[in-house]
Amino acid sequence: MPDPKTNRIVTANPPGGPEVLRVETRPLPQPGAGEVLIGTAACGVNRPDQIERMGFYPAPPGAPEGLGLEVSGRVEALGEGVSGFAVGDPVCALVAGGGYSDHVRAPAGSVLPLPAGMELTDAAGLPETVFTVWANVFEIGALLQGETILIHGGSSGIGTTAIQMAKAAGARVFTTAGTEEKCALCRSLGADRAINYREEDYEAILTEAGGADVVLDMVGGSYVQKNINLARPGGRLVSIAFLQGSRVEIDLMRVMLKRLTLTGSTLRARPDAEKARLAAAVRRTVWPWVEAGQLRPVIDARFALDDVRAAHERLDSGAHSGKILLIP
To answer: Are 251 and 180 found together in one domain?
Structure first.
């Protein structure tokens, strides 16, 4: 058992592969004004953590030390000016760092109550993906009931969440994945059509189906022009990652003629007030979907905090479907 007066965190210094990850001990953190101290039940392992481990995604100023952007657990202490929570409350939270830990400080505005019917550890798989999908698909992408969305990487943590949220909102969902097993998972979550991109041409399939109003893309590279080609007039193409690279050559004439919007965003560096606004929207609209059983985190694997290298090896392999969790 860890010492309750100390805190284990995970660092990556120098940056590199999973072998650089270290579990280190620090003093027990104390919540500052407007913060909540959470005793961590579980924390999510995400692609941004991988990028930070490699040295390309620095934490914003003032973030807790260490890797990890989402947690679930129980409130241990409240900072000055915090209301609406009590010690012992089960919660989940988006954090700017330090989620791979026994205890973590979180801005109160980014802390949400545990949805009814949700297991506390599984709830660690909600904040990063739900906030990301809400911000990019529903706010920036402005997905409406009855529209068609194409979600690339459908079996990823973001993808499995986006499929369920889009279906709950009444959209028609197309998605891509790399194996038949992953496509079957996407269909089980509500995808109307899951396309094995290694065997099928998603551009041709979407074009024949009438095109997409919204595309959620985490691949970049050659996918960008294909997304433009298959988009409907007035379509919104939202980029959140670039597994094939962010530098591309595209035909802007099609963008102009179709009146397309090419956009994207990141989440971590947004101000606390903006994250609090997103949290309020998520609680108002998405939490009822969770409590109604329309949205659940798909958990691929659980690892002990001391096995964080194995968790990142699983993430790096690309073999996972859904979320990977660390259990302190």
So the answer is: yes
Query: Which structure tokens are listed for 147?
Result: 């529209």
Q: Write down the pLDDT at residue 5.
A: 86
Cis preceding-peptide flag for 14 (omega within 30 of 0): yes
What type of residue is 205?
I
| Contact status, residue 295 vs residue 286, Cβ threshold 8 Å | yes
Q: Give Cβ neighbours of residue 62 (< 8 Å, ≥ 6 apart).
A: 96
d(CA 263, CA 140) in angstroms, rounded, equals: 8
- Which pair of tokens denotes residue 70? 């989402």
Tell me, what's the pLDDT at 1? Answer: 56
Tell me how many domains the chain contains.
2
pTM over cut 0.70: yes
**Judgement on whether residues 88 and 107 belong to the same structural domain of the protein:** yes
Rounded CA-CA distance 202/152 in Å is 10
> Quick check: 92 and 114 in contact, CB under 8 A?
yes
Cα(269)–Cα(63) distance, rounded to whole angstroms? 10
**Confidence tier at 79 by pLDDT (50, 70, 90):** very high
CB atoms within 10 A of CB 33: 9
Q: Which residue's structure tokens are 């999510």?
A: 44
Tokens of 34: 């407007």
Q: Where is average pLDDT lowest: 56-60, 101-105, 291-295?
A: 56-60
Q: Are residues 193 and 152 in the same domain?
A: yes
Degrees to nearest 5, angle at CA 159 with 138 and 309: 130
Reading the block at residue 64, the tokens are 């807790």
